Amino acid sequence: MTAPLLTVSGVHRSFGAVRALRDISFEVEPGTMVALVGRSGSGKTTLLNVIGGLDRPDSGTVTVDGVDVTALDEDGLSQLRRERVSYVFQTFGLIPVLSAAENVGVPLRLARVDRPDRERRVELLLDLVGLAGHARQRPGELSGGQQQRVAIARALAASPRLLIADEPTGQLDAETGLAVMGLIRGVVESEGVTALVSTHDPVMMALADRVIHIADGRLTT
Amino acid sequence: MIALLTRRARAQWPLLLSLLAVLTLGATLLGTCALLVTHTSERAVEVAASRADPDDVEVTAYTVTIAAADARSVAADTRTVLTSAIAPFSATTSTRASSNMRTLPSHTDEDRGLLSEVYLSGVDGLRDQARLIAGRWPEKSGDTVLFDNTARLLGLKVGSRVHLGAELGRDPAPPMNVTVVGLVHPLPDAGWDRDPLGGTGYDPDPKDAVYAQDVNAYGPFLVTLDDLLASGSALDRLEVTARPDLSAPTGPALDRLRASVNGADRRLGGVLGDRVSIERVASPLPKTLFDDRSQQELTAGSVLALALIGILLTAIALALAGRLTTGVRAEESALLTALGTSRGQAALAAAVEAAALAALAAALAVPASSVLHSLLTHMQPLAGAGLAARPAVTGVQVLAVGCGAVALALLHVGLAVRPVAAGGERRGRRELLARSGADLLLFALAAVGWWQLRAQPAGAGSRADAVRVLAPALLLTAGTALTLRLLPPLLRRAEGLAGQARGLVLPLAGFQAARRPQAYAAGLLIGLACAAATFGTAFGSTWTVSQHEQADLSVGTDLALTLDAPPVTGQSAEVAAATGGVISPVADRNVAVGQWLGGSGASPRLVAMDTRHAADLLRGRGSDSVADGLTPASAVTGPLLPAGSTPTITGTATRDTPVLVTPRLLLQDDAGLRTACSGPPIVLDGRPHRVPGCVTVAGLRLVAVALPFSGGWEGQPNSGIDITMTLPGADSSPGSAAEPVTWSARAASAEAGQLTAPAVTAAGNRLRFRADVQFADPADLSRVLVATTFPDPGPMPLVVAERFATDVSARAGTKLSLTFGLTPINAVVSRIVPAIPSAPGSPAALADVDTLSRVLVAHGDFDSPVTGWWAGHARSADGLHLGKITTRTGETARLVGSPLRSSLPAVLKVLVAAAVALLLGGVVLHVAYDVQLRALEVARLRGLGMSRRDIRAALLGEHAAVLLPLIVAGALVGAIATWAVAPLLIRSDTGAAPVPPATAHWPWGAFGILAAVLILGAGLAVAIVVTVQARRADAAHLRVAS
């Protein structure tokens, strides 16, 4: 049996009187795609932020690829996100002034990859997400689906072990959303990446290997 | 609506506070400038008047030829006219009167045609104008006091009773007797130059000598004024001087005083009628007050020009704040519009908010501007100029503050109701076109303003015209707008370079700086504020340096003394001891060039000084080499005469009737000052005759002798002359001079042909003069033998000012015929220079005083041309009461620290401070807004694994990439505006172009401090904002976004 890539154990997180996460514990196997499902305000984003080191739990631990995220300092968390964890945001999160290729190259620049290697990798990833012909276009010149595909390419650029996608289809129509989820499903299979995707779309859930439900900050399954 | 506005105000109080701060700052600036150009400006005129030199505000009435019976009434009426002209100011009056000439029988020899004449004088305040040497002051009728030298010449002493003959002229007053009760010595600078004999006490050739062939005039016989008016003597001249008390004047009263004094001459004529032959009221007061008003208006214009820059900056800052407000409220506005709020309702809401802000800003700005103005007046230079004032509120100030606040509030309303481009990222084509058109219009207006400033005449009026007020602001704004056009290409180039880096920080900063649409208002504010601060700093320096240069060239040396009377033997030592520096006698007189006496209100002037010491003496731009080539090749020397020695003259004439000679000796002291000493008329009878009283001090050398011969009409027409002059104890060694003493002789007027075969020989301590003289020409000057220890110097080399050269069409090498006094001088132009020290702006020429003296002496003119002294590296001139003293430092202080000018440097300080404050405020506003807008983006970068440190670095780099070029470009624009405009804005205290022309001056130290303040201040502001925002950007933003 392989060791879990992600282990969440007894995580609590409150914002004032609001208890966003209550005793969350689960594990995710490497190379799987997990759907985190819940209604708005159920704690999905908070949980993803805690797992990605963008937020700290009040108690409990999170281990990603053998690294205790909750024990890392600021620099350690930044390194974690550069090397092991990638994000795909609901609102795409692309930098408006950068072209599609430059956006994809951001993680590679953070990792100080040489220019030739960087350019090759960017070209490969854009080709992977089907945007090889849009490399020079800026986010404002791309459709929502195209922007999200750029965001996925950027998330894969640094070859992360864990891909966190927070409602990646939330701002897309059903058809485009399905295509994006299909793309994530594809890279999980082709790149061996572990994906944790929050959604409340039953169609999307069907593409996942496993579904975790969360309501009022608690896991329900 | 009010409820909505109130709630919104509570929620957005930091934003409204920043708007209020900008509004208040602008209104305060306006109020302060209004106080400076009204309250302080008017006060400056009053202070200037109260500090005016008494000589510059006195009013003098001159009357001539008054019958004895009218003397009292004329004096009284004249005083009444003057005091009424000066009312309501109180005034002190002083009267000086001199009688017609009377004969002095005891010293008159009618058989020989010799007449001695005297006159009475009555002087108010005699005790302040002369020093009592012996006896007492005159107190009662018949008492008189004499100058010591007059008494010596007449052989009188205290107690002598003198019989004065009848008056000369028609209807003469009868003879009278006076008793000498005291001897006095006239004090220098006490008005004796207006005495009939100039305060000399004796004149062997008075101007009115029409009664006899030889006339000696003596006087004055000083009596009390009442005694003179009651003596029955007709008055030759009567002058009444009134000195107004201007210690507490008001501006309107000064304006009325000026008009009243201008009309006093006409009123005096009407009052005196035919009791006098000539009457005239002369006063420098109207011109002094007019000049003060002109200078006040000139300064007010400059203050307005600088204030306009400040107001413009404030308006741009408000535009920036308004833009940020609009951006912050964009969603709210969209929601209200979606809910059905009309544009008119939005405008009304904005107007209500703006009115409240304007009212609040005005309420704050009125006291703030009063306090700021008061603080300014308590700082230099206003405090030093006597303009310190308590906080005060004036109507004009309140009006300016109110109007300014309302205007700025209207701008805010305009910005609030202006449609916002979608997303605020991309500007519409129409807006871009409008902006391009506005830029083009701005460039055109700036070019026209600059051209008009350049084209203004050198002697233009002093009033503040629109061009002078608008041009600086236009140029600065146009320059900044141009740099904003040039900045994007520059950033794109930088982006390309930054993109080469391997990491993310530098490329991200470069990409953001080059690709994000920067706020135009923020760029304009930062660039213009930096330009204004640079301009203000450099303009202040340029103005100050120009005042120094004007003062330097105006005085021409460190210390200039203008003598009240011709120089006397031994004066050099006195001047040297008093000043302690390198001294030079100076001649400064108007001359005629050919038949030309001058034009455009300026007469040609000849300035002559000791060019051997030019480096130590001359000051002012270009003075280093102005005197090159003027110094004579060798110094003049002559026999050194021991102090107290008395030369004797023994001579014979072959004519059968007596021939008289009145010898004049030219003596030179160590400093090169040459003074003439006249001997008594001597009959050439073969016997020795003494020439006493000439060698009064040690160190005098005899360098020339003039021997004018006279002999009447009778007798043989020709005479051979043979004269021997013995110089007891004379040392004929040349002293420090290299050349041995060599005498040469010539006729002063060879062309008259009345004196031929002149010759001089020297043997031991004797000089022998020979000549053949004819007595056909009645003019005495045609029979003057001149013997000198130097040859005729020939044409005198001149360095002439450009204006002189232009006026007489002269070039280097042009030969000119000058008339100095009555003596013709041949001169040659050696060089043309922009200006002559001490005579800036005049058609002036510079010569060597030694050469000038030699030329004059060669023509028989032994009168000293010297009118003053210059001293270089002078300590002071305390105790030197020989005339008016002007110092370079004093003139500089007058120009720089004048109450009429000190508002300019003060408002420059305000402008620089306001520009720096607005720049830093603008940076904070812009960066805070920008970083806040991008909080989500920062959070996502954190999500991508970028550390806070790298985010801070990228943001700092991005803003530095924008701000630094803006600051540098602003500094360049300010420097260029200074170079192009500042020299044109500076005028002299008469409103004309300054001489020397002002040139931009770069205060590098101040620039360094300014740059450090701006860069460090902006850097610190950006760092704080970025750090705070980077710390705040966390998962909360992602959560909100999701």
Any key phrases for this structure?
heterodimer; A: 221 residues; alpha/beta; Rossmann fold; 2 domains; six-stranded mixed sheet; four-stranded antiparallel sheet; globular; B: 1042 residues; alpha+beta; ten-stranded mixed sheet; eight-stranded mixed sheet; 26 helices; 46% helix; elongated; Macrolide_Exporter_MacB (chain B); ABC3 transporter permease C-terminal domain-containing protein (chain B); transmembrane (chain B); membrane (chain B)
Descriptive account of the structure:
The complex is a heterodimer of chains A (221) and B (1042). Chain A has 221 residues and is of the alpha/beta class. In chain A, helix 3 crosses helix 4, helix 4 crosses helix 5 and helix 5 (144-157) runs parallel beside helix 6. In chain A, strand 4 and strand 5 (67-68) form a beta hairpin. In chain A, the strands form two sheets. In chain A, strands 6-7-8-3-9-10 form a six-stranded mixed beta sheet, with helices on both faces. In chain A, strands 2-1-4-5 form a four-stranded antiparallel beta sheet, covered by helices on one side. Chain A is globular, with a radius of gyration of 17 Å. Chain A folds into two domains: 1-84 and 160-221, 3-Layer(aba) Sandwich (Rossmann fold), CATH 3.40.50; 93-159, no CATH class. Chain A has seven helices and ten strands. In chain B, a hairpin with a 5-residue loop joins strand 20 and strand 21. In chain B, helix 9 (285-328) packs antiparallel against helix 16 (520-555), helix 14 runs antiparallel to helix 15 (505-515) and helix 16 (520-555) runs antiparallel to helix 21. Helices cover 46% and strands 21% of the residues of chain B. Chain B folds into four domains: 2-48 and 291-552 and 896-1041, no CATH class; 101-233, no CATH class; 565-632 and 795-881, no CATH class; 640-788. Chain B contains 26 helices and 35 strands. Chain B is α+β, with helices and mostly antiparallel strands and 1042 residues long. Chain A binds chain B through residues 45-46, 49, 52, 54-55, 74-75, 78-83, 86-87, 89-91, 93, 95-98, 102, 106-107, 109-110, 112-115, 140, 154, 158, 166-167, 170, and chain B through 425, 500, 502-504, 507-508, 511-512, 515-516, 936-937, 939-948, 950, 1034-1035, 1038-1039, 1041-1042. Chain A: One of its GO terms (molecular function) is transmembrane transporter activity. Chain A: This is ABC transporter ATP-binding protein.
